[in-house]
Design a protein that fits this description.
Blueprint: H1 11-33, H2 39-46, H3 50-78, H4 80-100, H5 104-132, H6 135-167, E1 173-175, E2 178-179, H7 180-186, H8 189-199, H9 206-211, H10 215-226, H11 228-243, H12 264-278, H13 281-294, H14 299-327, H15 329-352, E3 355-356, E4 362-363, H16 366-384, H17 387-397, H18 404-432, H19 434-456
Antiparallel strand pairs: 1-2, 3-4
Helix pairs in contact: 1-4, 1-5, 1-6, 1-8, 3-4, 3-5, 3-18, 4-5, 4-7, 4-8, 5-6, 5-17, 5-18, 6-7, 6-14, 6-17, 10-11, 12-17, 12-18, 12-19, 13-14, 13-18, 14-15, 14-16, 15-16, 15-17, 15-19, 18-19
Length: about 475
């Protein structure tokens, strides 16, 4: 497993432990995407209306907000790896419980528990990777986290599609008198148990260990990562970055002692986290089947479109892996914002041309249906080569060592609250103002994000974590 290079850096080991951390991203994606194919099932099983269905779908996101908030702060007390272990346990409990639930209330409880896990994994996996990887390829390794998220989404879409086809519909009984939508949740148990097992074989973050005063353990980990000489130098750099303020990290560190105000870098992190959701990406991920059925596709075709979108997303993330440490973070964000604004505008236009049939479903002409389908998938590609991975990369690396856990807690909370609001309101927007107006709102947010990137986001490419300023 260990294979140091000439400089002593154990690149293979760094990559392997980073890949273990990214399983948290895979489960983040799976747990987020599995709901996509189960909406019809939970609606029928729990006899819920649009508002209750929206809450059933979005309930996990409340847990995500809480999980991100507490994971960031608890990780400064108990460690990054420890929080990932707890996340793995919650993934297992949630996957089983969501499938066995017999009421909306019971379902929501298990989904919120899953949200705790997703929220924790969303901030801890990129933070862990950033804290063990060298600056020259930190962006690429952290971007693999987004590939893992999209792979999890893709796996859930594919699993949903296969299980629904086997049962003839998501609401039909599949095995042992349980409906297919329940098996969609239980399929997550396999990667969840694998994640829990492998976490016992990775070390704790050396930067956390130094911040907690555990220098000997930190030196041992750093030597294993970078070799004895380079590890000793890195230990000195981490010490120096914390030397001006040796107290243990805490939430109040987000307030500048010089100005008495929240540090500007925190607001930038909140802006990045929020805009990632305000462009409406999770409407596609969570409600893709509902969305495409709303414009005339069958359930089977809608689930297949989700699979195609997931595959395109993985390809877009791979492009980012190749580019992020060469062209930087800011150019990718700007390109993504422009691309999303254009493609969302085209989707909005296509939806605006449609009429409504007797059943209340939007009807598009063949040409407008094709335009909506192509533009929506292009939008997914632009998102996943920019804001999808780059936002998480930047949150994991942009904060100084002293405030990384607290900064991630606040930004993660903002991200998941925005995610919840977008996800919860979509069924109501769909029923109330229609798809075109809803997508018009997401288009406007994409346009605003262009100017946010240009004015407030600063490049972090090639900078060591000890050089980050707040």
């Amino acid at each position: 497993m260990s294979s140091p290079n000439a400089s002593g850096e154990n690149t293979r080991f760094i990559i392997l432990i980073s890949l273990v951390a990214t399983i948290g991203g895979f489960l983040f994606g799976y747990d987020s995407g599995v709901i996509n194919g189960t909406v019809d099932g939970i609606t029928a099983a729990f006899n819920s209306d649009a508002a209750v269905t929206g809450f059933n779908v979005a309930s996990m996101l409340l847990g995500c907000a809480i999980g991100a908030w507490f994971a960031g702060t608890l990780a400064d007390r108990y460690g990054r790896r420890t929080m990932l272990l707890w996340a793995a346990v919650f993934f297992i409990v949630s996957a089983w419980g969501s499938g066995i639930a017999t009421s909306s209330a019971e379902f929501v409880i298990y989904r919120v528990l899953g949200g705790f896990a997703v929220g924790a994994a969303s901030v801890m996996s990129p933070a862990y990777i950033s804290e063990v990887a060298p600056a020259r390829y930190r962006g690429r390794l952290a971007t693999v986290q987004q590939i893992a998220i999209i792979s999890g989404l893709f796996a859930s879409f594919l699993s949903n599609y296969v299980l629904a086809r086997m049962a003839t519909a998501s609401t039909a009984v599949l095995w042992w008198d349980y409906e297919a939508w329940r098996w969609m949740f239980w399929a997550e148990l396999v990667p969840a148990f694998l994640f829990l097992f492998l976490l016992f074989f990775i070390p704790e973050s050396p930067r956390y260990l130094v911040a907690r005063g555990l220098r000997e353990r930190a030196q041992g980990v750093l030597s294993r990562l970078y070799g004895a000489i380079q590890g000793e130098r890195k230990l000195g750099e981490i010490d120096a970055s914390l030397a001006t303020d040796h107290h243990r990290p805490r939430l109040s560190d987000l307030v500048s002692k010089a100005t008495g105000r929240i540090r500007p870098i925190v607001w930038v992190g909140v802006g990045l986290a929020t805009f990632q959701q305000l462009v409406g990406i999770n409407v596609v991920f969570y409600y893709g089947a509902v969305l495409w059925q709303a414009v005339g596709f069958s359930e089977s075709d809608a689930l297949l479109i989700n699979v195609i979108s997931g595959a395109l997303s993985i390809g877009a993330c791979i492009v980012t892996v190749l580019l992020i440490d060469k062209v930087g973070r800011k150019p990718l964000l700007w390109l993504g914002s422009v691309g999303m604004a254009i493609t969302l505008g085209l989707v909005t236009f296509a939806f605006a041309t449609g009429g409504v049939d007797a059943a209340g479903k939007l009807q598009l002409s063949d040409s407008m249906g094709t335009l909506a389908l192509i533009a929506a998938n292009a939008y997914v590609v632009f998102f996943n080569m920019s804001w999808g991975p780059v936002m998480w990369v930047m949150l994991g690396e942009m904060f100084p060592n002293q405030i990384r856990g607290s900064g991630l807690a606040v930004a993660g909370l903002a991200q998941w609250v925005a995610n919840f609001l977008i996800t919860w309101t979509f069924p109501m927007l769909l029923a109330g103002i229609g798809l075109a107006t809803a997508y018009g709102i997401y288009t406007a947010m994409a346009v605003v994000s262009v100017f946010f990137v240009l004015k407030f986001v600063h490049e972090t490419k090639g900078r060591e974590l000890e050089q980050m300023e707040g």
